[in-house]
């Protein structure tokens, strides 16, 4: 196959300054065309993949950083491992010395542990026994201290207020006066405790029935009317011939009125009027009997 000079002239005369051989001209043109396509495709592909290339670079840098961190951790772990190995070697040396002496074999260690457990249990048992004895003694001393406080006042407290009773001046009149002063001050609990001391220590004194009535009034002031009635009854039973019988009858009558026991209260008041008509409390008793409906609700 041969090419004419006209077909060759389509590409010009710039290929070496002379005519191109008839068989080599198409091969040369094909190479030039392939080279142009290759350059063009490389340029286009590079533009498209530029973003992906940057992403790969970032990932590569991150992986390099992670690898460096892992290497640093590895160095740290190796140093720790070396330190642990040194400690283990020291322990091995100490244990080897113990084994040479023959005092710290596994069998002996087990026996020693059992002995320590037994001794520990014995100590715990002794501790519990001592604790119970200590608690018992504390309760006994606390009871004695409270009894002493009730009788003579708190030995640890200051006596500046004048409300504590000194053991040297403990007699019924002063004790009753102290309790009465506390009652007038509205300190009913403190007054009641001093009065109980008087009643317990001086059972046959002339002020004891007064103390019974004042204790009942202390309960009545704190809205404990039933307890007050018990103390009024004790004053009436223990001192039937005392000088406070009329007063006790009046307090029993008014206390029963307060708990709505009107017939019982009226019976005590009538007894007061009948047996103690000249008493200073008789006129008040008569008035209460007449005005019973005002003081009591219908039962």
What's the gist of this structure?
This protein is an all-alpha fold and 299 residues long. It is built from 12 helices and no strands.
- How many structural domains? 3
- Going by helix content, strand content and strand pairing, the class is mainly alpha
- What is the averaged pLDDT score? 77
Q: What percentage of residues falls in helices of 4 or more residues?
A: over 70%
How would a textbook summarize the main sheet?
A: none
Spatial gap, N to C terminus: 149 Å
CATH class annotation of the largest domain: Mainly Alpha
Assigned CATH architecture of the largest domain: Alpha Horseshoe
Percentage beta strand: under 5%
Summarize the helix and strand pattern as letters. Answer: HHHHHHHHHHHH
Q: How many strands?
A: 0
- List low-pLDDT spans: 1-20, 158-162, 164-169
CATH topology label of the largest domain: Serine Threonine Protein Phosphatase 5, Tetratricopeptide repeat
H/I helix tally: 12
Morphology call: elongated
* Cα gyration radius (Å): 58 Å
The CATH superfamily of the largest domain is identified as Tetratricopeptide repeat domain
């Amino acid at each position: 196959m041969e090419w004419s000079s006209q077909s060759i002239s389509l590409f010009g005369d710039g290929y070496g300054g002379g005519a191109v051989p008839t068989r080599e001209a198409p091969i040369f043109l094909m190479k030039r065309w392939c080279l142009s396509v290759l350059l063009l495709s490389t340029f286009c592909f590079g533009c498209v993949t530029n973003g992906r290339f940057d992403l790969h670079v970032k990932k590569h840098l991150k992986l390099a950083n992670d690898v460096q961190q892992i290497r640093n951790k590895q160095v740290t772990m190796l140093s720790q491992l070396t330190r642990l190995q040194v400690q283990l070697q020291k322990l091995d040396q100490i244990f080897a010395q113990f084994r040479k002496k023959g005092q710290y074999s596994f069998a002996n260690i087990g026996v020693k542990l059992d002995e320590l457990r037994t001794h520990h249990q014995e100590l715990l048992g002794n501790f519990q026994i001592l604790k119970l004895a200590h608690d018992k003694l504390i309760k006994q001393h606390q009871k004695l201290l409270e009894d002493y406080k009730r009788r003579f006042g708190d030995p640890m407290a200051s006596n500046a207020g004048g409300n504590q009773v000194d053991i040297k001046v403990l007699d019924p009149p002063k004790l009753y006066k102290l309790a009465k002063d506390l009652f007038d001050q509205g300190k009913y609990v403190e007054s009641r405790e001093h009065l109980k001391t008087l009643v317990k220590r001086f059972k046959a004194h002339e002020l004891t029935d007064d103390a019974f009535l004042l204790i009942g009034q202390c309960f009545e002031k704190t809205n404990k009317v039933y307890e007050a009635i018990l103390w009024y009854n004790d004053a009436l039973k223990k001192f039937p011939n005392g000088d406070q019988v009329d007063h006790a009858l009046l307090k029993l009558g008014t206390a029963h009125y307060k708990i709505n026991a009107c017939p019982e209260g009226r019976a005590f008041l009538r007894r007061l009027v009948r047996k103690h008509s000249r008493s200073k409390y008789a006129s008040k008793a008569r008035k209460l009997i007449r005005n019973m409906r005002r003081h009591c609700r219908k039962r």
